[in-house]
């Protein structure tokens, strides 16, 4: 059997991965396996990841052609073809494109628990201020159902 | 202190916690200029070495482009750095804690895929300790630098597969019996339901099976560090139990005992040993020690031996470059000395 990746050398390394419940097995030559990091426990699924991205990319029609991230200059195409974003800003810049992808990778889209110190104080306070403002807003507009939801959110935050 | 899981050392080879972090004010390493890389290196290095922490004095720092290729490959074989980290060494830095006779290895790769790749490796099964250390160093960094973070997506990483906690926790298990009975596929699909992954390294030849499997979390978003580790711990305990129960039946199986004793015989007498042959034989011997068939060598010495006879490490210890033939001869000599004494 020839290596599935280079189709040149005989395949002598069996690589099995399970991503989101899907079991896949590849026969690779030792060179390609090494290139992909499978001969070492450090590997980060580069092989499957690119095929995963590829699959999503083909299905995803609604991507922003040519738009470049203001932080690092990457286009969404660049991100898809490499499987890597260029900077933290990419996530907000390509938010609408990346979020569905993130959901498909993790099955979820919201982080839980641990936060860095800087965010812990600054961002949460911002968040709380924003919530209080929208509560006042909702009450002024007499949108009481909405206000109740926001009130619960504030309680939850302040209770933490 | 003896960990409560030290008894499982015959099955659990090592435990690893890896955290991915990035600084807010720089693009990720793939889009970072060499100048930027140098700045990031300086910031992280100072945060650790000059940080007000007892742990600082244990770290040694290396500029990757200033160490030899051999030394960096040896770091790879010791699982301190990734293979990729040695290929392009410009703009990359490494902080490590490596103490003789200690069961913990800590490494911080600067400008690998992310600005910070913090890794704690423990021998045997010890998630709690590995996580505690990783968490302490993470906090030390967090006190001094600003990490890229989003309320919804968690820690922002170059690859979306690491978003959220940025944590990959894993355990390396030696599962020769589950493998021999063809049960690993079933284990793999069961793990998948819990957002866990199993990866096997089968060695380079189809016959050379080291039976080492790495189990790690696949999902990093939407699950806390604590829950992720709990999942892994529960599952690992189950797998170890299965492997152990099946090993009991093997203790009286003449074919298995024959394979174990033959493997020991070759290791104790061979004059030329390739890496593949060694890995498959040592896997049998490891099993033999675990079921009480071999008493002349300990699991700990076997683990140590596996590290010592990797190609770059052989050269590093011998302090000279060698070709494959010379290494195979040197390997046989090192192994023989362990089995005779």
Continuous helix count of chain A: 7
Q: Bin the helical content of chain B.
A: 40-55%
The chain pair with the largest interface is:
A-B, 57 and 66 residues
Q: Helical stretch count of chain B? A: 12
Low-confidence stretches of chain A: 39-52, 56-62, 120-124
Gyration radius of chain B, rounded = 21 Å
Distance between the termini of chain B: 28 Å
Can you give the mean pLDDT of chain B?
88
Alpha-beta content class of chain B: alpha+beta
Q: Please describe the biggest sheet of chain B, giving its number of strands, its sense, and whether it closes into a barrel.
A: 8 strands, antiparallel
The dominant shape of chain B is globular
In which range does the helix fraction of chain A lie?
40-55%
* Strand segment count of chain B: 10
Order of helix and strand elements from N to C terminus of chain B: EHEHHEEEHEEEHHEEHHHHHH
- Please tally the β strands of chain A and state the result: 2
**H and E string of chain A:** EEHHHHHHH
Query: What would you call the quaternary organization?
Result: heterodimer
Strand content of chain B: 15-25%
Radius of gyration of chain A: 22 Å
Strand count, sense and barrel status of the largest sheet of chain A are:
2 strands, antiparallel
Main sheet of chain B: which strands, in order across? 2-3-4-5-1-8-10-9
Write the layout of secondary structure elements.
The complex is a heterodimer of chains A (160) and B (341).
Chain A lengths: L12 E7 L2 E7 L1 H6 L10 H14 L16 H7 L5 H6 L1 H12 L10 H24 L3 H16 L1
Antiparallel strand pairs in A: 1-2
Chain B lengths: L11 E10 L12 H16 L10 E4 L5 H9 L5 H5 L5 E6 L5 E7 L5 E8 L3 H16 L6 E2 L3 E2 L11 E8 L1 H5 L3 H9 L3 E6 L10 E6 L7 H26 L3 H16 L5 H16 L8 H10 L2 H8 L5 H17 L1
Antiparallel strand pairs in B: 1-5, 1-8, 2-3, 3-4, 4-5, 6-7, 8-10, 9-10
Provide a descriptive summary of the structure in words.
The complex is a heterodimer of chains A (160) and B (341). Chain A is mainly alpha-helical and 160 residues long. Chain A contains 7 helices and 2 strands. Chain A has helices at residues 30-35, 46-59, 76-82, 88-93, 95-106, 117-140, 144-159; strands at residues 13-19, 22-28. In chain A, strands 1-2 form a two-stranded antiparallel ribbon. In chain A, a hairpin with a 2-residue loop joins strand 1 and strand 2 (22-28). In chain A, helix 6 (117-140) runs antiparallel to helix 7. The model of chain A is unreliable at 39-52, 56-62 and 120-124 (pLDDT under 50). Chain B is of the alpha+beta class. Chain B is 45% helix and 17% strand. In chain B, the strands form 2 sheets. Chain B has an 8-stranded antiparallel beta sheet with strand order 2-3-4-5-1-8-10-9, covered by helices on one side. A two-stranded antiparallel ribbon of chain B has the order 6-7. In chain B, helix 8 packs across helix 12. Chain B starts with 11 loop residues before the first strand and ends with a helix. Classes of the chains: A mainly alpha (160), B alpha+beta (341). Chains A and B meet through strand 1, helix 4, helix 5 and helix 6 of A and strand 6, strand 7, helix 6 and strand 9 of B.
């Amino acid at each position: 059997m020839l290596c599935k990746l280079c189709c040149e050398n005989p395949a002598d390394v069996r690589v099995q991965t399970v991503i989101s419940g899907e079991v896949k097995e590849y026969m690779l030559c030792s060179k390609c396996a090494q290139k992909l990091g499978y001969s070492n426990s450090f590997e980060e699924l580069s092989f499957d990841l690119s095929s995963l991205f590829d699959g999503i990319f083909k299905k995803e029609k609604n991507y922003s052609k040519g738009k470049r991230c203001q932080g690092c200059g990457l286009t969404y195409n660049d991100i898809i073809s490499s499987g890597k974003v260029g900077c933290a800003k990419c996530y907000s810049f390509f938010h609408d494109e990346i979020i569905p992808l993130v959901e498909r990778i993790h099955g979820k889209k919201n982080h839980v628990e641990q936060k860095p110190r800087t965010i812990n104080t600054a961002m949460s306070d911002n968040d709380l201020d924003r919530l209080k403002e929208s509560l006042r807003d909702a009450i002024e507009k007499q949108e009481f159902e909405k206000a109740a939801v926001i009130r619960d959110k504030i309680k939850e935050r302040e209770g933490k | 202190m003896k960990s409560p899981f030290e008894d499982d050392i015959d099955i659990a080879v090592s435990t690893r916690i890896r955290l991915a972090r990035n600084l807010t004010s720089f693009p990720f390493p793939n889009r970072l200029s060499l100048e930027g890389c140098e700045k990031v290196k300086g910031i992280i290095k100072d945060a650790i070495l000059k940080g007000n922490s007892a742990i600082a004095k244990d770290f040694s720092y290396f500029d990757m482009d200033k160490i030899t290729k051999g030394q960096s490959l040896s770091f790879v074989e010791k699982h301190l750095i990734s293979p990729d980290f040695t290929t392009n060494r410009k703009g990359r830095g490494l902080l490590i804690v490596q103490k003789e006779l200690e069961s913990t290895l800590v490494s911080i790769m600067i400008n690998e895929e992310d600005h910070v790749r913090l890794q704690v490796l423990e021998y045997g099964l010890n998630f709690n300790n590995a996580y505690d250390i990783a968490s302490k160093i993470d906090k030390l960094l967090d006190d001094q630098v600003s990490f890229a973070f989003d309320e919804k997506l968690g820690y922002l990483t170059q690859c979306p597969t690491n978003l959220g906690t940025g944590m990959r926790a894993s355990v390396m298990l030696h599962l020769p019996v589950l493998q021999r009975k063809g049960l690993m596929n079933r284990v793999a699909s069961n793990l998948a339901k819990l957002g866990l992954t199993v990866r096997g390294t089968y060695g380079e030849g189809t016959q050379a099976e080291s039976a080492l499997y790495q189990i790690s979390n696949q999902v990093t978003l939407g699950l806390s560090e604590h829950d992720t580790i709990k999942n892994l711990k529960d599952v690992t305990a189950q797998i170890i139990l299965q492997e152990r129960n099946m090993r009991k039946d093997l203790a009286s199986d003449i074919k298995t005992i024959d394979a174990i004793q033959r493997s020991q015989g070759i290791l104790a007498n061979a004059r030329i040993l390739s890496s593949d042959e060694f890995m498959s034989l040592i896997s049998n011997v490891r099993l033999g020690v675990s079921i009480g068939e071999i008493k002349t060598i300990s699991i700990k010495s076997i683990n140590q031996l596996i590290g010592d006879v990797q190609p770059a490490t052989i050269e590093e210890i011998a302090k000279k470059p060698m070709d494959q033939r010379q290494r195979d001869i040197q390997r046989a000599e090192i192994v023989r000395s362990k089995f005779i004494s």
